Amino acid sequence: MKALVVTKKHKLELQEIEKPTVVSGKVLIKVAYCGICGSDLPRYFDGGVHAFPQVLGHEFSGVVVEVGDKVTNVKKGDRVAVAPLVPCGNCENCQKGEPAMCAYYSFIGSREQGAMAEYVVVPEKNCVKVPDSLSLKEAALVEPLTVAIHGIERINIAAGAKVMVLGAGTIGLLTVLSLRAIGAGEIIVVDLNDKKLSVAKTIGADEGINPANQTLEEYFQEHSLPDAVIETAGSSITQKQSIEFVNKRGKIVYVGTSTKDVVLDPETFEKILRGELEVTGSWMSYSAPFPGYEWETGLRYMSTGKIDVKPLITGLYQLEDIALPFDKMVEPNSEAIKLLYAINEEK
User: Which residues form the Enoyl reductase (ER) domain (predicted)?
Assistant: First the structure.
């Protein structure tokens, strides 16, 4: 079968590799669409994989074409999205019903073969059936959508609450959609990319702020602070701003992964104490029973039209395009939001 394989740093090859074999408890998926996640970028550009060679891809949908022994919940022909985390099921955290905290997990697309390939074998329990009313193209976005859903569910956001989202990448924009779905009030989005801020306003944000044009200090001199901040950019700057620009007794969720040291001066840190801020992190998108309510909720939001992810799909590519969409994602002021490989495209 065809697959995109990272063979070394900044080297992605289209190869013919052996089609994976189904074993007990697992199913073979004919991959329809696979998205490129921001976490895939360092795996390719920096060689940040656990081992070479590595087939990437963990945001995907497809059709079950073969099932192994002891598979009872899915059958050949089922249209599915796939949760990429493979928890061990045995460690203390798994036993407590906290699969995202698993100490010995595997992960499709980083620790085992991913879905930038014609076929992939996955555990039956990782398959979530896609409603007939939802396209497999849209369903390929359920994994990042569940990250956004899990993030906002880490805190209690009252109906009508004012929320600021830092970062207008895929997760930030899906957070906007998720906040709208639960009845949040005014939504402010902050990003340095005007094109993505425009998309944010199109899908439901009330205000888009580009700090290169107007600083948050300037903006909040004339506007009230938000009740909650969802940090999705993973920037040391926005991680600090989350504390600086939230209401007293406000709530902060850190979703974006840090890439540099986060340094808090005493005055900023004291805002947590004096403001009695609620600060928490959000990791992946899983709960019990596995893979969690986030997955059924995400698919239901999309299938009923409560969340429309189509405006976020900004490009379709073939496996033969190899690294082209990766390069598109890192262009200066890129318009790319979610780029998909259409591998066995749904007709």
Answer: 9-313
